[in-house]
Design a protein that fits this description.
The chain is an alpha/beta fold. It has helices at residues 30-33, 35-42, 67-76, 92-100, 113-116, 123-126, 139-151, 153-171, 173-186, and strands at 16-22, 47-50, 61-63, 77-82, 104-106, 134-135. Strand 4, helix 4 (92-100) and strand 5 form a beta-alpha-beta unit. Helix 2 crosses helix 7 (139-151) and helix 4 (92-100) crosses helix 8. It is globular and about 50 Å long. It starts with 15 loop residues before the first strand and ends with a helix.
């Protein structure tokens, strides 16, 4: 697995009541990135999408920001909306959100079967609905989860803390370093 340094990604505060997303070319790559689902699930909520190739998103595009600004957005945003980029099992932005403690609302299995003939998503293995994040493919449920987190800072904090615990267990620098050490000793 990839890793993130828990000392760099931490200290979520959720002061911005907004839905955050980092995706490159979200609209153009809809079948792989869930653009339509993102737009429906977040319509009417304060939302921002960062990343290259998103100029076609109009006023929800936040531009391209540097590393420090990206970490600040994870810390400050109340909700991170995650779809990922099929066929990847998960992407670095999920790890970064979880590691920071940003509450995640995610779509479930997102791999277009007609393109790949298999499901490679691990989201439902990583996120346990209602404990360390929320996961659904139903727009109404996704909207309910987003609204709940925007309205309830304490719940958002608890979900984010559990998400961070999950990230530490799966993606921390020390965890992955040990896995590599163990692997390399076997060869």
């Amino acid at each position: 697995r990839f890793y993130k340094d828990p000392e760099e990604y931490k200290d979520w505060n959720g002061e911005k009541k907004q839905v955050l997303n980092f995706t490159q070319s979200l609209k153009v790559r809809d079948k792989h990135t869930g653009y339509k689902l993102f737009m429906e699930a977040t319509e009417g909520f304060p939302r921002v999408v960062y990343g290259t190739g998103n100029e076609d998103l109009g006023d929800i595009w936040g531009g391209v920001i540097d590393y420090e600004a990206q970490k600040a957005e994870f810390k400050d945003s109340r909700v991170y909306f995650y779809h990922g980029t099929a066929p990847a099992s998960y992407t670095l932005s999920l790890i970064e959100a979880l590691m920071t403690g940003t509450p995640v609302v995610a779509t479930g299995s997102n791999t277009p079967k007609d393109l790949y003939g298999q499901d490679t998503s691990e989201i439902e293995d990583i996120i346990q609905n209602g404990r360390n994040g929320f996961v659904s493919n139903d727009v109404g449920e996704l909207r309910k989860y987003i609204q709940t987190l925007l309205d309830n800072h304490e719940l958002a904090r608890r979900i984010g803390e559990e998400g961070r615990r999950t990230a530490l267990a799966l993606f921390s620098k020390s965890k992955i370093k040990e896995e590599w050490r163990s692997f390399l000793e076997k060869i």
